[in-house]
Amino acid sequence: MERTEIGHIAGAIIILTIVISFKDLIIGKVSSLSTFLLFAIVLVVVNVAGKKIMASMLDLDVEHKMWTWSQWGWRKQQHFEKPMPAGVIIPLVITVLTRGVVSMLAVLTYEAKAKTIRAAKRFGFYSYTDLTDWHNALIGAGGVIATLALSAVAYFLPTQLEQLAALSAGYAFWNMLPVSDLDGSQIFFGSRVLYAALGVITIIFAFYSFSFWLI
Q1: Backbone angles phi, psi at 99, to 5 degrees
Q2: Averaged pLDDT of the chain
Q3: Is-contact 199 207, C-beta < 8 A?
Q4: Residue 52 above 80 pLDDT?
Q5: Domain limits, the chain
């Protein structure tokens, strides 16, 4: 893992910590900050690990970075001069405007590329050395599945981890949105069928997450 990627992941953890602890912070309850920091670390690490494991199985490399938004229109010339740090601005703005009632948990995106060894191992009729949209979608799906699995495991653990279960479900939901270059967008354009299947499962988990935070 490159130093730049580690920096983006660390930044994502900080943003997530602020977002998910905001309701407590505005009432002066700072004692829970360490717990939410730990939850943010677990969330990001599990999601990133899920993608990296899937990428490794496909002889691909995957690098994570803070979500940015550069295109504001449909035409190629309709873009910002510099990419907007959407993974920082959008979650924080939504959190502040809703006073923590709505916590947007989409902060990271990923970019995959083929390893050199891939060209040597993939040959014959099924030869493929370049990254395909399908394989890129599988990498995104690996992160979503790992996050949903974390939610399911945390749900059946002691009640203290019920928050982690809800956060994991919410994290998967927000990242499945097919906008910009979030995970959901990369899965959607790689396989509509895969996106639909994961989408249904994620929505089921998300109902639990939203009901938990609105109580």
Answers
A1: 55, 40
A2: 85
A3: no
A4: yes
A5: 3-214
